[in-house]
């Protein structure tokens, strides 16, 4: 029998398979699961478990970015796979890596 905490997580967690590597994308704000206004500007953590990554990357997601800031998926611009995965849920969102070099 699975305990209720495993069936219904208290914080958002996504298990990802990006380019053949498994990783975890998670948030620490439980409002992201239940309140649509929390999806305006929020933080997620990204961890690949690879030897070269010593700690989770802290990402800031803005789902209401301004059109004059540029299209993050413009032609010719290389986009990390995790950003493309995030945009499958929040189309057009901008992702800030907060000083961490993006993983490709």
TrEMBL record:
GO terms for molecular function: cysteine-type deubiquitinase activity; K48-linked deubiquitinase activity. Keywords: Hydrolase, Protease, Thiol protease, Ubl conjugation pathway. Hydrolase that can remove 'Lys-48'-linked conjugated ubiquitin from proteins. InterPro entries: MINDY-3/4_CD, MINY3/4. Its EC number is 3.4.19.12. It catalyses: Thiol-dependent hydrolysis of ester, thioester, amide, peptide and isopeptide bonds formed by the C-terminal Gly of ubiquitin (a 76-residue protein attached to proteins as an intracellular targeting signal). It holds the Pfam family MINDY-3_4_CD. Residues 5-99 form the Deubiquitinating enzyme MINDY-3/4 conserved domain. Transmembrane segments: none annotated. This is Ubiquitin carboxyl-terminal hydrolase MINDY. Belongs to the MINDY deubiquitinase family. FAM188 subfamily. One of its GO terms (biological process) is proteolysis.
